[in-house]
Amino acid sequence: MTDGAPTMRPTPLRASTAQWCRTITEARWFAVTVFCLILANAALLGMETYSGLATVWRGRLGLAEAICVAGFTAEILLRLGAHADRPRDFFRDPWNLFDLAVVLSTFVPVVRENTTVLRLLRLARVLRTARFLPQLRIVLVAVGRSLPGTVSFLLVGTLLLYLYAMVGWVLFAHHDPEHYGSVGRAVLTLFLLMTLDGITDAVHAGLEVSRWSLLYYASYVLLASFVLVNVLIGVVLTSLEEARHMEQDPSPPTPPPASVPVAQQALLERVIIARRALDDLERELAGASPTSSDTERAVPSSGGDT
To answer: Which domain holds residue 170?
Structure first.
């Protein structure tokens, strides 16, 4: 017997239902069908952007949308049924939660009445293709994991832009008010220069004001276009590598129980090693055939010494 609360075993009906649904959801034709349904939903969204086409084929487009909703609902029900014997595993997968939220939002009355929100949620269905494209799933996970580093990058970049914008306003406000007339215009100008587009014209215009403007633009290009951008690329690449490892090995190794002290854990390991050594010795002794003289010497005599 093991300590702790008893584990709940699924009933035969739930187990058979889960097995039947799992057989369907794990089939290749099921994944291909859902993938084609997602693409068809994306095509319907694109067709609705043409006013003439949407007016002429309004009834057909509405029917096609209803078919897509029915297909997505049936899919999520089958995925829920596949986890009937272990429902917690369904809600542990973020992609399952995303799919469930997208499908359920279609039936919310407030959402159905708002055309803009409904179209955005229908557009979110296109992201479900990541479930069937592992490389796209890795990229999306990497983008999510890179958000903390990206926020830090944005803070540093904003501070750098503000400092250089203030210096640019001081240097070029009177000579080039169109680009440096205020700190907002200076920030916009420097943000566009971050891509090195128009940097040549900016340098020539700055040289007409002062030769020190060359140092201003050179230092800005070095920090903004090379250092900061490379730091952002490094953050994204690191997150991409972590996401790839997570995709290959989604289950991290189980650490030893924290309730067992380190000394007791080491003692248990020594006991296990000693037990294995004794078992090996016992097998070796059992495999050997002792002679009669060895047996007589091994068994002590019944009488004591006088």
So the answer is: 147-248
In a domain, 274, yes or no: no
Amino acid at 47: M
In this structure, the answer to whether residues 121 and 221 fall within a common structural domain is no
Residues 306 and 302: their CA atoms lie apart, in Å, by 13
Residues 6+ apart with CB under 8 A from 138: 240, 243, 244, 247
For 21, which DSSP code? Answer: H
Q: What is the pLDDT of residues 155-198, one digit of tens each?
A: 888 888 899 889 888 888 888 888 888 888 888 888 888 877 77
Q: What is the pTM of this model?
A: 0.50
Pairs from 172-179 (Cβ < 8 Å, separation ≥ 24): 172/205, 172/206, 172/209, 172/213, 175/205, 175/208, 175/209, 176/205, 176/209
30, 24 contact by CB (below 8 A): yes
Neighbours of 284 (CB within 10 A): 9
